[in-house]
Predict the structure.
Amino acid sequence: MKFENNNKNIIKKITKSSLKANKTRNIFAIIAIILTTFMISSVFTLGISFAKNYRVMNLRYQGTTATTFLPNPTDEQIKQIKDLNISDAIGEEISVGNLNPDELSKKGRNVVLQYIDRENWDKQISPAMGEIKGDYPEGENEIMVSEMSKKLLDIEDTQIGDKIKLTYEVNGKTEEKEFIISGQFKNYTESLAFMENGASVIYVSEDFVAKHNLSLEENGILSMTFKKSEKYGSTNLLEENVDLKNNQKFEFNYDVEEDSKDIEMSAIIVVGLIGAFMVLSGYLLIYNILYIAVTKDIQFYGMLKTIGASPKQIKKIVRGQGLRLSIVGIPIGIIISLAVSFLVVPYAIESFCSGTYYADLMPNNVHFTPLVFGGTILFSLFTVLISCRKPAKIASKVSPIEALNYTGGKPKKQKKNRKSTNGGKLYKMAWYNVFRDKKRSILVFLSLFMGILTFLSVNTFMNSLSVDNYQQKYYPNDFELTNYGDNISELSDEDIETIKSIKGVTSVKVNKVSNLRMDMNEDVLMPALKAGYERFATEENTLDNYLQKVKKDPSKLTTWVSFVDDETIDKFEKLNDDKIDVEAFKQGKIALTSTFYYPNYEELDFSNQQITFRNSDRTKSVDLGVNIVEDKNDVLNFGKENEIGIPIFYISESVIDKIDCDILNNIVKVDVNQKYEPSVKNELKLMAEESKDVNLESKSDAVENFEQSMIMMNIIVGGISIILIFIGILNFINVMVTNVNTRLTELAVIESIGMTKRQIKKMLTFEGLYYAGITIFMIMTLGMSVVYMISKLIKNMVDYAEFVFPTSALILLVVLILLVCTITPSVVYKQSSKSSVTDRLRRIEK
């Protein structure tokens, strides 16, 4: 019976001595561990940072964490809701009044006074705000103002503690009072791009509300944020347990967490795939380095067994070396990843959103959480341990006799005798050698395949985010002037003629819009109204209230209409799948509206429906058919918004004369000769600065910002790509070095019986060609499928991304693989066989 010796100290000493004796191996192994740790940590950090920042972006767009609202709640109802214990936060909001109604209404803007209690501010509103400074108002004369409200009131230079005099309307009475600014914040939904005709907010104190005899039951709304565990059953619980008054019902907002799931899932899948590639690539690299070390030291492990070392102890020696190298490599990899992530991740996230409508909403914070830290260590350690497993198994199982003649292959039965009158065919011998050790062959193919596939995936990702795609999606014109107000004197026809006369301007296209009255057609409008109020109703508005208002005053039923020229509708027809009767549209017989307002549009049939549009004084009208279309390329899009659920319509310019309505020049698209672009920009900027309602967007500025945000991302992604392909090639070189070194005995023998060195080099070159050919075949089939799938996931994350086949990168890699795979084997053999065949055979006998 064999007993193991408890020689832990000796095992540690041997492990330490073995490390000292293999300094070159240690350097390569540590570099491999650092690279693996760095890549895993970087990918995890980018993925988690993107997911968390995207969630914050959605929250900012929503403006609150609350998802359910109850208007005019009683004290008894509030008690019933609290007794259910299903809410994380229950906030109170009271509509107080409007600020400067006459002055602001002329600008198409409104600033409202609101009161929200501390719980609403701390747990529901403030998480969606940014740049919060100062304190929430406590005294009667204290207010907290948003950045946009300061801009609309021309008090942008005021600071916290400053006094301002405001005129406001409360309970139908106009008052004037001096307030102290106690705090300020940025409400992201109040920016020009989102606000349009919406309201900006100033928060007042509880004392102010009490002085004006305003109450939650008469003037307020209760907002609720549910616990995650109660989210899906909360609606039924509320309806069953809360006694509602007549015409009172719960209003529901869409859940930002649900809205984020698709994007977050795409990010998780992409990060998971790339992470898996990196773990596998790291495993192959570390495995090959340790495998080479074990095969070189195989006689040393054989001699250890002769003096009593057990297989378990030998495994401990090999694993101990890997773990000690990890102690050095993993921390360095994490530190490098931290440094690079804090520099690169913000730029990477900015590049995703640069120039899009949500660019201002998307934070670019780096989230290096304990989960990332622990996960990186565990993944890296796991990679090292599984990399050690096979080399440790080889070292522990080899006997002292086998160690003397170890070749790295497994003896197996010959299936047939390879007899030939013409001698062995080199290409057949090479094919046999490639698959002699199938596990090793698979590792080589996987190593090359994974490195190249990851490189191509990253290359495709970057190409899909090209500046050309970005420009085509968001900036098809050199300049775009948008009128966010309702004043027809802004961007007037005279202004358009002035723009046309500017030197260097080559094209000016104007999007004309008008706010028209409609006759109620329930078959057309009610599906949109119901869908709109289900998705976007605020706590202040209900569908019943709106319908009552329209019934009482039909003039309230209005919609923004965009007048479309023939060139634009032809472009829409060409780019979109939805086909329409273009001639009927041009003749002013049909109106178009978007699928955005009709989520179940496939179930609707408007073929026999018409909608009646009237001008503001109801002197003229037109009756048009209705088509629902999906404007995937935003050809028809314009910058106006209706009441919740009211569709925007697109009709032909030919209808303008028939309906005789007030026309507002909404968007002016300007193209210029690039030679005059700077001078034209200056003149348009001066024109825009003359009005708060006109905003100028310049393609050159946007592209410059986009390219700057992409520079750092290109550096890091390009660096990672090079590292990955380097790992794949290094793995192949390592395998070929191991292959030749372990076969030196065999190669010396076949050379001694007549094969020349030239024939041996040719045979090894064929082996390299087989490796290259099979790898290229895998890339062209399975690899391209994976790359295409990744491009689809990226499209879900970045709307302007377009799949670009990586032709140049693929050709470059094919050439590189062929060169490396054909040159490496013969070079390695040449270096290993400098001595004569007699000396090599004598070395074997020893």
